[in-house]
Specification:
alpha+beta, Trna Endonuclease, Chain: A, domain 1, 6-stranded antiparallel β-sheet, 9 helices, elongated
């Protein structure tokens, strides 16, 4: 290796220092400019505040959660899988949170490393919003259940139902069951290709057993399912909802099938 380590360190320090600037906001607060940005291009809002005992508080003053709240339901950050990830992020980065404000209390000699820690934390928290778009499998089912409870009421939704008249019924779980007007409504959440294939098998088993049921297939994103798998699933039957974002369509199709009593 021909790199001069000392020269490289000096170049890195010079470059990093150029990306971080401190400006006075008022008598009690300094603005910290960093190279950290939200996905929409807005910079992270970070501030320095002097605390008792010579401690420096590095804080976002609640700006991150306010920024994310414009396009997201931030209450979900405290629930289910998102909540676990949220707590893990804070634990890993030593960031504290109070009423939506993220901060680290630090000695001045540790300020540099803590700037990167809070930047890392806010980036990971920002990434939680992508769960709304990508919908990892675990959160997809949580979100689907939440929508069903909102549409028909928690007391009318039976989670993980097994149709006992088929052999080895425990191998063929039905995600949700709701009593229908003329037949039970079986609902299947489909976050990806594997679940599309399993749902096809379950539906075929039910049809083979001459089960009396209606079915509704709700995708995380139907466009991501291979055409061949989607065709087989369509042949097995069941109305489809292209994504959880199509809530109006979901409400209409459920209400058409269920008993309102």
């Amino acid at each position: 290796m021909n790199l001069n380590i000392n020269n490289l360190e000096n170049k890195l320090c010079s470059s990093l220092c150029a990306d971080i600037k401190v400006q006075k906001k008022n008598d009690k607060l300094l603005i910290l400019e960093t190279p950290f940005y939200f996905a929409d291009g807005d910079p992270y809002q970070l501030y320095l505040k002097e605390m008792p005992g010579g401690v420096i508080r590095l804080t976002d003053m609640g700006h991150t959660m306010m920024h994310l709240s414009y396009d997201n339901d931030i209450e979900k950050f405290n629930e289910g899988t998102r909540g676990k990830i949220f707590e893990q992020i804070k634990s890993e980065t030593s960031v504290q949170e109070s009423n939506g404000e993220f901060y680290i209390d630090t000695a001045i000699e540790n300020l540099g490393s803590n700037i990167f820690k809070i930047g890392q934390a806010l980036t990971k928290i920002n990434d939680l919003t992508f769960l709304n778009r990508i919908r990892a499998e675990s959160t997809f089912y949580e979100d689907l259940q939440e929508q069903l409870f909102r549409i028909v009421g928690e007391d009318k939704v039976q989670k993980t139902y097994y149709y006992e008249d088929i052999e080895n019924s425990s191998d063929y779980p039905i995600d949700f069951k709701i009593e229908g007007k003329d037949a039970p409504l079986f609902l299947f959440g489909i976050p990806g290709r594997d679940k599309a294939r399993l749902t096809t098998i379950i539906l075929e088993r039910l049809l083979r057993a001459n089960a009396n049921f209606d079915s509704l297939l709700i995708f995380a994103d139907q466009s991501l399912i291979p055409k061949s798998d989607l065709a087989r699933l369509s042949n097995a039957g069941g109305e489809m909802i292209a994504s959880l974002d199509a809530e109006v369509d979901l409400v209409r199709k459920i209400n058409r099938k269920i008993s309102l009593n």
